[in-house]
């Protein structure tokens, strides 16, 4: 594969992966405006975010078998079309109930892009390249939290929150055209893959029974839930507790994304010296220590805006190391049913994110403690899952810098 083709594929796969995060981040600065316009509260508006997570969780399980049965492109085209229509529906919503419904449908469409992109990493690149590719995808995805809330803040301030969803509709159209014109077919449809419920469930169970998959996918998902706690709680914490406006919130959100994206890129350098499983373990230990130090500071009443930003930055740095390595290790044992494995991994991530975002939305008190508690507890649970799960892995399929395939040890 030429360097030009490699970069081009990363950009397309990154755009697909970034669609859902962009849909999450861009409207966050508009929470107060949406609440005012739809005569509700910011806490209830956050349920539209939880609805998005629910849609992605369910949609991932739907698209996994479809991507294995029909190949990657046809289900992807259908999902992107659903996303475009639902984004337009969000733009014209006139009640919080309609917005939540449209967000669920929008999520179902967007997750076709995320599931397909992850599965195509396994199709297009050797196992040894997977952590690097996932790190590069995070670099492209990094444009979302760095650009989306900043742009969303200015767009909401100038044109209203409806304009945000008009922009998302246009993005969906552009990405659909790019996939139709330039994305190669990466997987031959498996016509033996049944779409009946029983065989699909059996296929999912065969994936879940793999100790390496359930250990690293669950640990990674629970650790990643800390990011969802931050995303769900940050509009209230920054704009209602610390009284920043939409534009300032957008810039802070963009700055904090530097930690997440920067560490994911340093991960490629660390992989030259350490194995993925080593990096995940150390990163989770650091995440736990930072999370509970953060919580202790919040409970003591010493949490100022600068201190808040520092702790969030460090916590997100840890996730930048955990996510690409846990993802690569989760998918490493699979070839034939990589689509189903990718879907399950994504469903675990979004399922945990949904749960923690719903819990945080129930607390309408003006405090950072619910958000910080969610972040600390998620890190601790992830470390416990990893520690217990590793005992059941007898033949770890690792990823090696100098090997073209998985390494058993």
What does the secondary structure layout of this molecule look like, with pairings?
Blueprint: H1 3-25, H2 31-37, H3 42-70, H4 73-91, H5 96-124, H6 130-141, H7 143-159, H8 162-182, H9 197-208, H10 211-241, H11 246-270, H12 276-299, H13 305-331, H14 338-361, H15 369-389, E1 397-398, E2 407-408
Antiparallel strand pairs: 1-2
Helix pairs in contact: 1-5, 1-6, 1-7, 1-8, 2-3, 3-4, 3-5, 3-14, 4-5, 4-8, 5-14, 6-11, 6-13, 7-11, 10-13, 10-14, 10-15, 11-13, 12-13, 12-15
What does this protein structure show overall?
- It is a single chain.
- The protein is mostly helical and 409 residues long.
- The protein has one domain (3-183, 195-408): MFS general substrate transporter like domains (Growth Hormone, Chain: A, Up-down Bundle).
- Helices cover 78% and strands 1% of the residues.
- The protein has helices at residues 3-25, 31-37, 42-70, 73-91, 96-124, 130-141, 143-159, 162-182, 197-208, 211-241, 246-270, 276-299, 305-331, 338-361, 369-389; strands at 397-398, 407-408.
- The chain has a two-stranded antiparallel ribbon.
- A hairpin with an 8-residue loop joins β1 and β2 (407-408).
- α6 (130-141) runs antiparallel to α11 (246-270), α10 (211-241) runs antiparallel to α15 (369-389) and α12 (276-299) runs antiparallel to α13 (305-331).
- The model is unreliable at 400-409 (pLDDT under 50).
- This is Multidrug effflux MFS transporter.
- Its main location: membrane.
């Amino acid at each position: 594969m030429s360097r030009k083709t490699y970069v081009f594929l990363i950009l397309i796969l990154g755009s697909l992966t970034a669609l859902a995060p962009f849909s999450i981040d861009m409207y966050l600065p508009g929470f107060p405006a949406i609440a005012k316009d739809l005569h509700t509260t910011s806490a209830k508006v956050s349920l539209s975010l939880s609805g998005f997570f629910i849609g992605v969780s369910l949609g991932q399980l739907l698209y996994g078998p479809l991507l294995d049965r029909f190949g990657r492109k046809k289900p992807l085209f259908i999902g992107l079309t659903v996303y475009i229509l639902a984004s337009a529906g969000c733009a014209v919503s006139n009640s919080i109930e309609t917005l939540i419904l449209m967000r669920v449908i929008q999520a179902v469409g967007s997750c076709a892009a995320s599931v397909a992109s992850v599965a195509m990493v396994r199709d297009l690149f050797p196992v040894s390249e997977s952590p690097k590719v996932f790190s590069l995808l995070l670099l492209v995805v990094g444009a979302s939290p760095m650009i989306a809330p900043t742009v969303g803040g200015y767009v909401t301030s100038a044109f209203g929150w409806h304009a945000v969803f008009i922009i998302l509709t246009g993005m969906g159209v552009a990405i659909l055209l790019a996939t139709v014109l330039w994305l190669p077919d990466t997987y031959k449809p498996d016509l033996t893959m049944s779409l009946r419920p029983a065989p699909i469930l059996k296929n999912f169970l065969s994936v879940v029974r793999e100790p390496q998959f359930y250990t690293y996918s669950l640990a990674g998902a629970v650790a990643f839930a800390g990011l969802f706690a931050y995303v769900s709680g940050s509009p209230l914490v920054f704009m209602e507790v610390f009284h920043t406006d939409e534009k300032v919130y957008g810039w802070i959100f963009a700055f904090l994304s530097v930690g997440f994206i920067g560490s994911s890129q340093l991960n490629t350098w660390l992989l030259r010296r350490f194995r993925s499983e080593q990096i995940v373990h150390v990163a989770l230990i650091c995440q736990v220590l930072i999370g509970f130090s953060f919580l202790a500071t919040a409970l003591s009443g010493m949490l100022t805006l600068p201190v808040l930003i520092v702790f969030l930055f460090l916590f997100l740095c840890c996730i930048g190391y955990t996510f690409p390595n846990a993802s690569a290790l989760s998918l490493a044992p699979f070839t034939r049913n990589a689509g189903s494995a990718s879907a399950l991994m994504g469903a675990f991530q979004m399922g945990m994110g949904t749960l923690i975002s719903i819990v945080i939305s129930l607390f309408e008190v003006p405090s950072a403690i619910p958000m910080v508690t969610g972040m600390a507890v998620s890190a601790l649970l992830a470390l416990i899952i990893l520690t217990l799960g590793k005992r059941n892995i007898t033949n770890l399929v690792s990823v090696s810098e100098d090997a073209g395939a998985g390494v058993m040890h």
